[in-house]
């Protein structure tokens, strides 16, 4: 979530933690434990954290992976590793993982509009991007190693090529007629 303060934006990172067992969804209970507010000017490894659009958890390493919503205009597309500590600063950023193409180069600016991230059992980070109608960049899903190097890329099938018209310029890619 993002709130505008009187001087600069503040980003809220809230987690509800609970124990999930194999019970019916109606019987699940979660307990809200804490909330951490990350300052809008927070930097990790020289990159501005800014807005975060996706979050996934790795129970084996007890780490969260948070996907930056930046299209690469502030810093290259990236994922942050975060540690949750209930007895210290609640959220401690550890490092930034720059998302790279198959050649190991940072993904070009504007190619990704990262919206969601998931950690696969294989250890790959799957990132969903909604594409860009103005740039005729289709939505897709990509798998990355934990060092940020791309493993696989899946294009999401669409009915024909994206067409950009005057009425579509201000619409999101999923609203553009194909």
Write a brief structural summary:
The protein is an all-beta fold and 178 residues long. It has no helices and 13 strands.
Q: How do the strands and helices of this protein lay out in sequence?
A:
Layout: E1 2-4, E2 9-17, E3 31-39, E4 43-44, E5 47-48, E6 52-58, E7 63-68, E8 78-84, E9 91-98, E10 114-119, E11 125-129, E12 140-144, E13 150-155
Antiparallel strand pairs: 1-2, 2-3, 4-5, 6-7, 7-8, 8-9, 10-11, 11-12, 12-13
Mean pLDDT across residues: 76
Order of helices and strands: EEEEEEEEEEEEE
Please state the structural category.
mainly beta
Q: Helical residue percent?
A: under 10%
Count of folded domains: 1
Distance between the termini: 31 Å
**How many runs of DSSP E, i.e. beta strands?**
13
Q: How would a textbook summarize the main sheet?
A: 4 strands, antiparallel
What is the count of helical runs?
Answer: 0
Alpha-carbon Rg, integer: 18 Å
Give the amount of beta strand, in percent.
35-45%
The largest beta-sheet arranges its strands as 6-7-8-9
Give the overall shape. globular
Q: Poorly predicted ranges (pLDDT <50, ≥5 residues)?
A: 1-22, 173-178
């Amino acid at each position: 979530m993002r709130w505008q303060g009187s001087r600069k934006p503040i980003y809220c990172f809230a987690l509800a933690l609970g124990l999930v067992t194999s019970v019916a969804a109606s019987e699940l209970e979660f307990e809200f434990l804490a909330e951490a507010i990350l300052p809008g000017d927070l930097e990790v490894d020289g990159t501005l954290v800014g807005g975060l659009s996706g979050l996934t958890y790795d129970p084996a390493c007890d780490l969260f992976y948070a996907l930056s919503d930046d299209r690469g205009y502030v810093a290259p597309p990236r994922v942050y590793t975060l540690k949750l500590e209930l007895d210290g600063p609640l959220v401690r950023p550890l490092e930034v993982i720059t998302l790279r193409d198959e050649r190991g180069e940072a993904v070009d600016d504007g190619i990704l509009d990262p919206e969601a991230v998931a950690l696969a059992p294989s250890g790959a980070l799957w990132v969903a991007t909604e594409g860009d109608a103005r740039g005729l960049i289709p939505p897709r899903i990509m798998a990355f190693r934990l060092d940020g190097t791309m493993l696989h890329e899946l294009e999401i099938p669409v009915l024909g090529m994206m067409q950009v018209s005057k009425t579509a310029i201000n619409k999101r890619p999923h609203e553009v007629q194909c």
